[in-house]
Write a structure and sequence with these properties.
heterodimer, A: 450 residues, mainly beta, Rossmann fold, Neuraminidase, 2 domains, 6-stranded mixed beta sheet, 4-stranded antiparallel beta sheet, 4 helices, globular, disordered N terminus, B: 247 residues, alpha+beta, Immunoglobulin-like, 60s Ribosomal Protein L30, Chain: A, 5-stranded mixed beta sheet, 4-stranded mixed beta sheet, 5 helices, 12 strands, 32% helix
Chain lengths: 450, 247
């Protein structure tokens, strides 16, 4: 039974979702609440996660089971594509195997689940084994969509990773797009007394410090292959782009440009970096190879030019922030510096992040900015082709540094409220806002590419 | 120019001499070569080393506390041979990692403790010319900027002229121009804006006859604030180019 992944069968429901995953245009609802489809807002799939069945009475089985159940439940909830059946509405049975499940009970009200995830977890001699299944509650035959077995040492970390992997399998199976449960978020935290680069799982667990530079480090950007994190750091000669290897778990050499080099951004093929550099005295956008070789300037606009990001779909365009007309605005251009186009029409707009599908920009915007007009700094998304925008955060602190998740459905960002800054995530329509960090200041999140 | 070069040479020679001395000193206190392989019966030494507090401001004191067991020879890099357990106060001027090595019949153990020295806003020690940071800042005053602007204001021209006069009278002084922004707006954009501010101040001084070789710019954006209240008077204090001695 284990390890036999039944071939996926496509149902009308799945096709319907595929269609909605492509950008569906925008519909005006209210002046300030324009709605842009970004893979969210589509009818959500009703899914239930059963309590996994403990396979034996080993002392560690139950603790691992609780970790697994909670992690899987949260992953499905955070995925943004599911209507997860509340725990109070699911049948009390703990089916451990397909023979033990009564699909009709899960299909019936109040559960009314279209799909159910279930299985068993067993710890034996310090090793754990998880069997996970995904079933279509309405199918008369071929009801099994997934049958997976996972093994690892019995630790909380490993159990959480197994739950993440199973959740991602479920998302992939039902939507055709990879889930985000195994992704990471890189960010800046001052919890150690200095602003250093930290890493955490997408759900806020497993927070740990990467750098120990004892200065100010900002703006982490993880490489598309998850092997390195580029960021900027204040040294004796000002700000330089620095590089941390996630493989070697230490700093690795990188040209110390000095002269205010900051805000590095990777092209999606991992071959190039764009960054801001005041080599000539004015901060302009430069592009170099991934190892820092051959930096060349692509903007020549007086005033601050900063925060470049690549169009991850094509790597042929770069969006950035320019103060060439005083208050910062978001612009896009081709990577040779041609075809400059301004996206924002005023206010104070910073911190662009280009959606993985290449169609949307998320950024921070204070539409009414200036002395005497204290507006709020909020997260927005804009459809680049039409320049139609929608506001995602409302009436909750000062929000900045949004970063897209690889599934195009989520945005992570920083929110300053009550005197400190924390990291939050939300669906790309602004709903389901969750705080991920607590304690100290945590800022400038960057969502990994996979 | 010739004079300056001679001076640099003397300085370089002096530095080289200092380095050599430091090098010799370091050699002297290096731990002795490891003894012959220990007999398997001797217990292995253990060592712990802590620093309290582990973060200080430059000039402050931290206390090292170490304990070892089964060790006959204990040394701490930069301090030398020490008792097998004890305490010592240290005054590092920059972040320093103390490395303790304990040798015993049963082998070698080591332990490290780091004292992080927080960089001061401005370094106070007097320079070779006898001008300390305070005297310098009395004479070379900051200039202030309008909101979201790096243009030199008319009211800054007088300050810049007097700053330039002082710098032209003290041609050996090198200067860091720090660009600062108020607390509003985005971190990265403010770092870039601060660079524009520092660079605008640099250009203004160059136009008033100060050699660009003496001027170095560093932007602090909104990362270091002179005033932390949320009002215009405070924001104005923070929108500045600040001149400090480059040492």
């Amino acid at each position: 039974m284990s390890r036999n992944l039944i071939k996926k069968h496509c149902m009308p429901r799945t096709f319907c979702l595929f269609a909605l995953l492509t950008f569906a245009g925008s519909a005006l609802r209210a002046q300030d609440w324009v709605h842009i489809e970004s893979n969210v807002g589509a009818a959500k799939i009703r899914i239930a996660a059963a309590e996994f069945k403990p396979g034996n009475t080993d002392a560690k089985t139950m603790p691992m089971k609780y970790v697994f159940d909670q992690t899987l439940y949260n992953d499905l909830r955070y995925a943004g594509v599911f209507d997860v059946v509340s725990k109070s509405m699911i049948p009390t049975a703990e089916p451990g195997t397909p023979q033990e499940i009564n699909l009709a009970a899960w299909a019936a009200a109040p559960s009314s689940a279209a799909y159910v995830a279930f299985g068993s977890i067993t710890v034996n001699g310090g090793q754990e084994s998880v069997q996970g299944f995904l079933y279509d509650t309405h199918a008369q035959q071929n009801a099994q969509l997934l049958g997976k077995q996972f093994s690892d040492v019995a630790s909380v970390e490993a159990t959480r990773m197994i739950a993440h992997r199973f959740a991602d399998e479920i998302v992939q199976q039902l939507t055709g797009i990879a889930g985000i449960a195994e992704t990471k978020i890189y960010y800046v935290s001052d919890r150690s007394g200095h602003r250093e680069i930290w890493s955490m799982d997408y759900d806020g667990f497993n927070q740990h410090q990467l750098t120990y530079l004892h200065t100010i480090s900002l703006g982490p950007a993880v490489s598309p292959d998850n092997s390195r994190v580029a960021f900027s750091s204040l040294g004796r000669d000002g700000w330089s782009v620095r590089m941390y290897s996630l493989v070697l778990k230490r700093m690795v050499s990188f040209p110390m440009w000095g002269n205010m080099a900051q805000s590095p951004a990777w092209s999606s093929d991992g071959n190039q970096l764009a960054f801001s550099w005041a080599r000539t005295g004015n901060p302009d956008i430069y592009v170099s190879g991934a190892s820092g070789a051959n930096p060349h300037r692509i903007t020549a606009f007086l005033g601050p030019n900063v925060s470049p990001v690549w169009n991850p779909k094509t790597n042929a365009q770069i969006a950035w922030v320019s103060g060439r007309t005083k208050l910062p605005q978001i612009y896009i251009m081709d990577t040779d510096g041609s075809n400059v186009m301004r996206l924002t029409d005023g206010g104070y707009a910073t911190s662009p992040s280009w959606s993985p599908n290449g169609e949307l920009m998320t950024f921070a915007w204070q539409r009414n900015y200036g002395p005497g007009a204290p507006g709020a700094e909020d997260i927005y998304i804009m459809d680049i082709a039409s320049k139609k925008w929608t506001q995602l955060t409302h009436d909750a602190g000062a929000n900045d540094f949004p970063s897209w998740s690889p599934d195009n459905r989520h945005i992570v960002f920083q929110r300053q409220q009550n005197g400190h800054t924390e990291i939050w995530m939300m669906l790309a329509d602004g709903t389901d806002q969750q705080q991920l960090t607590q304690g100290g200041n945590n800022l400038m999140p960057d969502w990994s590419w996979k | 120019m010739q004079q300056k070069r001679t001076k640099s040479l003397v300085l370089a020679a002096g530095l080289a001499a200092m380095l050599t001395v430091a090098g010799c000193h370091k050699k002297k206190i290096a731990p002795p070569p490891p003894p012959a392989p220990p007999a398997t019966t001797a217990p292995a030494p253990t060592a712990t080393l802590t620093a309290t507090p582990d973060t200080i401001n430059a000039g402050d004191q931290a206390v090292l506390n170490w304990q070892t067991s089964n060790a006959t020879d204990v040394s701490i890099d930069g301090i030398g041979t020490v008792a097998t357990s004890g305490t010592q106060s240290v005054h590092p001027t920059q972040t320093t990692t103390y490395h303790l090595v304990a040798h015993g019949d049963g082998g070698t153990a080591d332990a490290t403790a780091t004292v992080t020295v927080q960089a001061p806003q401005a370094t106070p020690p007097p320079t070779e010319t006898g001008i300390d940071e305070n005297a310098f800042e009395q004479s070379v005053k900051p200039i202030f900027y309008d909101y979201d602007s790096y243009s030199i204001r008319p009211d800054a021209q007088t300050t810049l002229q007097s700053d330039a006069n002082y710098l032209n009278q003290h041609p050996n002084l090198k200067v860091v121009i720090g660009g600062y922004c108020d607390d509003r707006g985005s971190i990265e954009y403010n770092l870039a804006l601060g660079e524009n501010r520092a660079n605008a101040a640099k250009q203004a001084l160059v136009n008033l006859g100060v050699s660009p070789d003496r001027l170095r710019t560093v932007s602090y954006g909104k990362e270091k604030q002179f005033c932390t209240e949320q009002n215009e008077a405070c924001w104005q204090q923070n929108r500045r180019a600040q001149f400090t001695l480059d040492q």
